Amino acid sequence: MAGRDFVARQCKPQSGGIMDKIRALIVDDSSVMRKIVERSLRQAGIELEKVVEASNGAEALVALQNNVVDLILCDINMPVMDGLEFVRQVAKVESAKGIPIVMITTEGSESHVVEALSAGARGYIRKPFTPDQVKEHVLPVLGKKP
Asked: What local confidence, expressed as pLDDT, does residue 31 receive?
């Protein structure tokens, strides 16, 4: 997705969700994975008002300047700016403080997860994941019961 800062789109109205509609920022260098994350959120019963996509941490920082979001789901391994550095940078952005960040990773190393949590992430999901796992990890950071 070179040359594109971010993608934001309004989502179609849904019914039957388990909570108020949320605005999500999904950060992953794979456009396919971004779609999988979005679909998993929907299948988990999380209604999306708006989805903003970014292909790396630098694009995600720009997206945060231009969009209000309630949740960030972020990969760890990405070019330009990885997820760990993105979490560190978000902690410095006053308007972004308090936005829950959930890391999505294939990392086998616990040290990456611990580092992300220490930097400000509130949870993590390991790839591959199911909608039930997304629900289990995302709802608590949004203050809801799974």
From this structure: 95
- In angstroms, what CA-CA distances link 140 with 37, 61, 123, 134? 17, 24, 9, 10
Q: Given a cut of 90, is residue 13 above it in pLDDT?
A: no
pLDDT tens figures, 47-72:
999 999 999 999 999 999 999 999 99
Pairing between β-strand 22-27 and β-strand 48-54 as defined by DSSP bridges: parallel
Full strand arrangement of the beta sheet holding 123-126: 7-10, 48-54, 22-27, 71-75, 101-105, 123-126
Contact yes or no for 135/146 (Cβ under 8 A): yes
Give the residue extent of every domain in the chain.
7-141
Share of the chain above pLDDT 90, in %: 63
| Pairing outcome for strands 48-54 and 7-10 | antiparallel
Out of 3.40.50.300, 3.40.50.2300, 2.60.220.30, 3.40.630.30, the CATH code matching 7-141 is 3.40.50.2300
Q: Are 27 and 124 in contact (CB under 8 A)?
A: no
